[in-house]
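A student in our group prepared the protein record below, which I am reviewing. This is what I was given:
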Amino acid sequence: MHTLNLKQILIPYAQAVEELKLKFKSLRQSFIKNEEYSPIEFVIGRVKKISSIVDKAKRKNIPFELIEEHIEDIAGIRIMCQFEEDINTVIALIRQRHQKDLFVIKERDYITNMKASGYRSYHIIIKYPVQTPTGEKHILAEIQIRTLAMNFWATIEHSLRYKYKQNMPKDIQERLNKAALAAYNLDEEMAQIREEVLKSQKGFTEEANVIGNIFNNIQNLAQTKSSCNMNNIYETFWKLWEENDINKLKEFDKNLTYSLNEK
């Protein structure tokens, strides 16, 4: 009977989710534009479904008028990281925003203190100010921070728990426990090769930037040089591309830039 009221209540929560997603996606882009490693791999968000809100209120015996005060995850965003070590960096970034554009209310560490089910994630409950037609409204929102491996396991577990409710078959639960251990081991293995992976990614980014500059310079030169000269430039580029020598490509890019500056 409160469905219509809830639909109205959820409007600022949807706004908060979109704003928070944009903030952390922009933060990721800032790292990338500065050619720095981003601890944020990607960001998603959602507003809890009305049926889920009502179900949770019933389970926790929360009166309808107190739903916004006692259900902390009506608005939620999830930040995924490549490595477990990145989670601490993201946590620090969020804490730095405290009292600036959000307020950290509480934190729950399900990584150090893994749930019995095998669930691992770091949760931060925040109070977030939203501008509404009637003025500023502070709402509760949950930020979940986890690795890709943690998220894969949690997504599967959530689907199965939704399917079986409280009657998870024993063999399915045992398999989930094994999968949780496998996800944990994967994060541990990734931690061991983190530096090697980062070096590889940095090299790929550097090469992509050089190639991008070369294409841009070639496009600009094509407006001033003859077709014959451009054919020579193209042939040189493809030869260097096949050699896959980043230093030679950098030198080629430098020469192209010099040619442009001569004009």
